[in-house]
């Protein structure tokens, strides 16, 4: 006689339970590893864009690129490149559009009211792909636009970009900022925040701050529709920042600026409170 051997029901249930426990343990590890890989890729994007900016200054008398420099090129839908925008100015030195899209940025982009939102995929998006990184913004005399990059629209010059030698402490001055905005894309103009304290603090710290990705701050009606939104890029609550000397560093948002900048702006300026976006070295 041949005796057929098989697992009992209890044995099968035990095996299934063990597999389920192992999966519950390993899946979060896999997710963390994937997020870490994306964060590393984001740092690499920063570095290569910063290198492109440094190459740009060689050809432009040591002056950093403008956020915007000239008239806009709008159509509906927007299909023409904004050649006067910061990312287009630097891209000839990078020669890789995909570097401008953070691997963590899945913010839907909108190119016009008539066409609505599209995926940020470089291949499928009619807007040519999302732009995840922006330059810090400078306006003379402003207490909240204290970055480096200038802006001009048509014949109106709001400010000029700094030369690299005019930045007080380049190794401690943030130049490249991860800003995920639903209307920031390849065929659009580089976006900016006139109040750069928004980059450092989220709404839990200051009501005027921007959310930390994957959370978003509503910007209803800013460009396309009620879906318009903004966020500061992050990986598990940690943001990658690009500095004026060409290096990139991971830091929590509130590490780059003392909270006095939102609780008492006058005191922050008078007592030189920490502000790593500010061009002036006295705030380092």
Our Rg estimate from Cα atoms comes to 23 Å
Sheet of most strands: 6 strands, antiparallel
How many E-type strands? Answer: 11
The structural domain count equals 1
Arithmetic mean pLDDT: 89
Strand content: 5-15%
* Residue windows where pLDDT falls under 50 for at least 5 positions: 119-123
Task: Give the topology string: H per helix, E per strand.
Answer: HEHEEEEEEHEEEEHH
Share of helix, binned? 25-40%
Which structural class best describes the helix and strand composition? Answer: alpha+beta
Can you walk me through this structure?
This protein has helices spanning 9-59, 86-94, 197-200, 260-263, 265-270, and strands spanning 68-69, 109-112, 116-118, 133-135, 151-153, 156-159, 174-181, 217-218, 229-232, 239-243, 248-251. Helix 1 (9-59) crosses helix 2. It is globular. Strands 4, 7, 8, 9, 10 and 11 form a six-stranded antiparallel sheet that branches. The protein has a three-stranded mixed sheet with strand order 1-5-6, with no helix packed on it. The chain is α+β, with helices and mostly antiparallel strands. It has one domain.
Please outline what is shown here.
Helix content is 26%, strand content 15%.
Describe how the helices and strands are arranged:
Blueprint: H1 9-59, E1 68-69, H2 86-94, E2 109-112, E3 116-118, E4 133-135, E5 151-153, E6 156-159, E7 174-181, H3 197-200, E8 217-218, E9 229-232, E10 239-243, E11 248-251, H4 260-263, H5 265-270
Parallel strand pairs: 1-5
Antiparallel strand pairs: 2-3, 4-7, 5-6, 7-9, 7-10, 8-9, 10-11
Helix pairs in contact: 1-2
């Amino acid at each position: 006689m041949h005796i057929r051997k098989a697992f009992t029901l209890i044995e099968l249930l035990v095996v299934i339970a063990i597999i389920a426990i192992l999966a519950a343990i390993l899946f979060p590890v896999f997710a963390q590893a994937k997020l870490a890989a994306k964060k590393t890729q984001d740092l690499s994007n920063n570095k290569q864009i910063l290198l492109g900016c440094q190459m740009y200054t060689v050809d432009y008398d040591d002056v950093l690129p403008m956020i915007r420099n000239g008239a806009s090129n709008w159509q509906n839908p927007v299909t023409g490149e904004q050649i006067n925008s910061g990312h287009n100015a630097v891209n000839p030195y990078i020669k890789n559009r995909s570097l401008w899209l953070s691997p963590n940025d899945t913010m839907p982009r909108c190119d016009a009211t008539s066409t609505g939102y599209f995926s940020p995929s470089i291949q499928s998006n009619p807007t040519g792909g999302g732009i995840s990184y922006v330059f810090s913004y400078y306006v003379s005399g402003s207490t909240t636009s204290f970055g480096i990059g200038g802006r001009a629209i048509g014949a109106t010059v709001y400010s000029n970009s700094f030369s690299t030698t005019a930045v007080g402490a380049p190794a401690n001055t943030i130049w490249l900022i991860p800003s995920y905005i639903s209307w920031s894309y390849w065929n659009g103009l580089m976006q900016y925040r006139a109040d750069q304290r928004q980059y450092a603090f989220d709404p839990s710290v200051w009501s005027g701050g921007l959310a930390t990705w994957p959370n978003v701050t509503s910007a209803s009606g800013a460009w396309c529709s009620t879906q318009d939104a903004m966020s500061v890029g992050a990986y598990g609550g940690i943001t990658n920042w690009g500095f004026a000397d060409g290096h990139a560093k991971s830091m929590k948002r509130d590490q780059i600026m003392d909270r006095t900048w939102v609780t008492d702006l006058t005191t922050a300026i008078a007592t030189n409170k920490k502000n790593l976006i500010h061009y002036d070295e006295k705030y380092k």
